Amino acid sequence: MIVYRKPKKSELKNIAKMTALSFGEYPINDLELRGGFKDLDSYVNFMSDAHYVYIKLYHRRHVCIVGEEDRVIKSLAMLKRPDSPEDSIWEYLRSGAMDLLKKTSLLRLLKYLNVLEEGHRPCSRLKEPSWTLEFLAVDKSCKGQQLGSKILKDCVIPYIMEENEGNEPASFITFTNTESNSKFYIKNGFTEFDYTTIERNGMAIGNWSLRMTLSPC
After folding, report:
1. Which domain covers residue 35, as residue numbers?
2. Which one-letter DSSP state was computed for residue 71?
3. Does the model's pTM come out above 0.90?
4. Please, what is the average pLDDT of the chain?
5. CATH number of the domain residue 108 falls in
6. From CA 165, how far away is CA 53, in angstroms rounded?
7. 192 with 121: CB under 8 angstroms?
8. 45: which residues sit within 8 A by CB, 6+ positions away?
9. What percent of the chain has pLDDT over 90?
């Protein structure tokens, strides 16, 4: 049986290692980041540190949920509420972002953040307040067990419905940079509302933006 809960602060580093391995070959990382590392181990090590900063911030300011089975954390979802303020540079620094400069240059990190901002842009342009699925990860060793669909259907969507105020439908959005992930979200009830490409250094990747409307029961 899978138990969904907020992770403990002491668990965040191990969760970050899990998500770094899960997203190690994610294409958005190739545009401005991965080429700066001499080998796969140093790249994954940096991504683990970067994910730790990201997860630590969400654990403190937003919604961070893990799926645990047999006392092993196997999935993670991170959400932003419709009324969440933007995360300032100070908030990232407070979560340890300065430590990342020990393993990569400031210029490379800023270029990577610019790529991420471009990926978010279609969702940011939507006028209606929306819940945002910023991050969904499943332990690489558990792929094929439908854990991503389970955390969405059994936890994330019910959580939004419970937290949504009033009788108005809730808007739920996300984006991804792989066609397979886009198909995953569509299979789980999202519809595509924007597609574009992100180009850097002679490379281009797809950028799918998706949404779902959750009607109150």
Report:
1. 2-167
2. T
3. yes
4. 92
5. 3.40.630.30
6. 30
7. no
8. 103
9. 67
Q: How confident is the model at residue 143 (pLDDT cuts 50, 70, 90)?
A: confident
Residue with the two structure tokens 């009607």: 215
Is-contact 108 17, C-beta < 8 A? Answer: no
Pairing of strands 130-138, 170-176: parallel
Terminal C-alpha separation, the chain: 26
Which residues, 6+ apart, have CB-to-CB distance to 14 below 8 Å? 73
Q: Is residue 113 part of a domain?
A: yes
Asked if residue 208 is part of any domain, the answer here is no
Non-local CB neighbours of 67 within 8 Å, separated by 6+ positions? 2, 3, 4, 73, 74, 75, 76, 147, 150, 151, 155
Residue 206 within any structural domain of the chain: no
Q: Is residue 45 in a domain?
A: yes
Segment (H or E) for 174: strand 170-176
The predicted-structure confidence for 158-180, as pLDDT tens digits, reads as follows 999 999 877 788 999 999 999 99
Query: Three-class SS of residue 39?
Result: coil
- Tens digit of each residue's pLDDT (9 = 90 or more) over 55-101: 999 999 999 999 999 999 999 999 999 989 888 888 988 999 999 99
Cα–Cα distance between 152 and 133 in angstroms, integer? 10
For residue 194, the model assigns a pLDDT of: 97
* 84 SS3 class: coil
In whole angstroms, what is the distance from residue 71 CA to residue 139 CA? 14
Name the token pair of 108. 């490379």
In order, the DSSP letters of 123-171 are HHT--S-EEEEEEEEE-GGGTTS-HHHHHIIIIIHHHHHHH--SSSPEE
Task: Give the total number of structural domains in the chain.
Answer: 1
